[in-house]
Amino acid sequence: MREILHEIQDGTFARDFILENQAGLPVITVRRRQGAEHLVEEIGDRLRGMMNWLDDDTSKK
């Protein structure tokens, strides 16, 4: 936590983020794919499929 705070304060985080963006987001793309393929996402999809009230338009405001 302290390390990332230090990177934010000294500008390292912003510099790395800009470079990542300029390079076409290769690291972020890999991490997003890894997250999407994680077992918790598969289980979440199955659980949401069992929650029929999530598709009920009357419950939305």
Give a written overview of the molecule.
With 61 residues, the protein is mainly alpha-helical. The chain has one domain. It contains four helices and no strands. It starts with a helix and ends in an 11-residue tail after the last helix. The model has no long low-confidence stretch (mean pLDDT 93).
List the SSEs and their pairings.
Blueprint: H1 2-10, H2 12-22, H3 26-36, H4 39-50
- In terms of quaternary structure, what is this? single chain
The secondary structure category is mainly alpha
Compute the number of structural domains. Answer: 1
| Count, helices | 4
Report the major sheet: none
- Overall pLDDT confidence: 93
- How many strand elements? 0
What portion of residues belong to β-strands? under 5%
* Dominant shape: elongated
Give unreliable regions as ranges. none
Q: Give the proportion of residues in helices.
A: over 70%
What is the end-to-end distance? 37 Å
Rg, Cα atoms, Å: 19 Å
One letter per element, helices H and strands E, the order comes to HHHH
GO biological process, one term: L-valine biosynthetic process
Cofactor: Mg(2+)
Organism: Syntrophotalea acetylenivorans
Family: Belongs to the ketol-acid reductoisomerase family.
Primary descriptors:
61 residues; mainly alpha; 70% helix; Acetohydroxy-acid isomeroreductase
Quick structural gist:
The protein is an all-alpha fold. It has four helices and no strands. The N and C termini lie far apart (37 Å).
